[in-house]
Amino acid sequence: MRIYFTFEPRQDLREPLVEEFSQVDFVFQSGLTTEELQKADVVVTYGEDLNEENLQYATKLKWIFVASAGVEKMPAQAIIERGILVSNVRGIHKTPMAESMLAHILAIKRALPWMYEQQKKCEWSKKVKQTELCDSTALILGPGAIGSEVGRLLHAFGVQTIGCNRSGQKAPHMDVMVSFDKLLEALPKADIVLSVLPKTRETTHLLKEEHFKVMKKNAIFMNFGRGNLVDEQVLIRAIKADEIGYAVLDVFEQEPLAENSPLWTLPNVIVSPHVSSHSSRYVERSLNIFKPSLVKWLDGETDLENVMDLSRGY
User: In what residue span(s) does the D-isomer specific 2-hydroxyacid dehydrogenase NAD-binding domain sit (predicted)?
Assistant: First the structure.
């Protein structure tokens, strides 16, 4: 069996993998080549290098392991037609992403951006507007692995959590659950509106002008899921109209964000270049999911962890 990594893990992670699975022929290569695709039984990728054109060369390919949560850039229909199994690393992002989101929330609540600016100007001023996170309410769109971890951390700060998903079914660390069709009723209660939703047809432009109009004027809006959640112009209009207090954005409709986008310079906007999940332990955690799945695969099993339904996008 030949397993083709289209990226190169660190040596200290790669060597134990090769040693543990000595019966496997591993290829580690930065970047994808059609020559290696033609030989591969399994491809391990971040999901951005495979396309419909080069997939046709992968005639032996039976399993794609995606070291990422999103698969929107992959040729879903072609993969489905070929019957190729796809699994991913859903769940490994929860620790770094939850820490990133909590860091932004606390920074805003305790006025850290203002303090940094004062330091740059060498100005000693106590005219600072600080608020407390305690006793606030957070509405979390998409309380899966990441959203639930955020909820767990927010509970430690005395925050009430409202989870919102398609079904409204119960999720861990959510005090209340609502479905998408009840979102307009829940938004006015939230001091923090935080999305970690995946990119699907249903989540595309889920938030519209009417949703921002009912948010609290001092609400912190955070998008750490996918940029399709809201039309950029709708968001810009809401910020300019002071319909929300702050916007913290890790994802955008078009990435990288255009240099002339107003989001770079609008007050009370934080632009994070899609890095909230980055961590020195990212590949380590990915391999911790890959290895047990590989054991099953070598035994002829297809009931792997995090098998994806590409027709649904997750």
Answer: 102-276
- 249 in the same domain as 131: yes
* 155 classed as catalytic: no
pLDDT of 90-141, one tens digit each?
A: 889 999 999 999 999 999 999 999 999 999 999 999 999 999 999 999 999 9
The answer, as to whether pTM is greater than 0.85, is: yes
Question: At 245, is the secondary structure helix, strand, or coil?
Answer: coil
Are 84 and 110 part of one and the same domain? no
Q: Is residue 93 among the annotated active site residues?
A: no
Determine which one of 2, 14, 173, 274 is catalytic.
274
Number of domains in the chain: 2
Mean pLDDT, the chain, as a whole number?
96
Whether residue 312 lies inside any domain: the answer is no
At which residue do the structure tokens 């962890």 appear? 305
Q: Which residue is catalytic, options 90, 93, 104, 226? A: 226
Same domain, yes or no: 119 and 197: yes
Identify the active-site residue in 255, 278, 281, 312: 255
- E strand intervals along 175-260: 176-179, 192-195, 220-223, 246-249
For 215, the 3-state DSSP assignment is coil
pLDDT in tens, 131-173: 999 999 999 999 999 999 999 999 999 999 999 999 999 999 9
CB 67 within 8 A of CB 28: no
121 in the same domain as 32: no
**Do 59 and 172 share a domain, yes or no?**
no
Nearest-CA neighbor of 198 among 276, 314, 96, 104?
314
Query: At 16, is the secondary structure helix, strand, or coil?
Result: helix
User: Is residue 307 situated within a structural domain?
Assistant: no
What is the maximal distance between C-alpha atoms in the chain? 67
For the question of residue 48 being annotated catalytic, the response is: no
